[in-house]
Specification:
Length: about 100
């Protein structure tokens, strides 16, 4: 058995880029964001409805993959999140 430092593995980044940027992986990631958004909208506190109505999904390009974020664009989003953790709870619930 090799000792620590005696084994070297050279990964082919192009192979992993092809997988992580494939349409199938993008669709799975997008579906997860859509489930999270549905949970966040369903459980959003409603005063004026502005917070709930301005929740959305943004696509974010990274070096090796594409991710999707559920974000709020209402001016009070940070205040509401600090009090309710709506997006964090929606994310946890959407994972199960």
């Amino acid at each position: 058995m090799p000792r620590a430092g005696q084994t070297y593995i050279d990964f082919d980044d192009r192979f992993f880029d092809a997988i992580m940027k494939s349409e199938g992986v993008k669709q799975l990631t997008r579906q997860s964001a859509e489930r999270t958004l549905a949970q966040a909208v369903a459980n959003a506190p409603v005063d004026t409805g502005e917070y709930r109505d301005r929740l959305g999904i943004e696509e974010v390009e990274h070096a090796h993959r594409t991710t999707y974020m559920v974000v709020g664009h209402d001016a009070k989003t940070m205040l509401i999140e600090s009090r309710t953790q709506n997006l964090a709870r929606a994310f946890r619930k959407a994972r199960t």
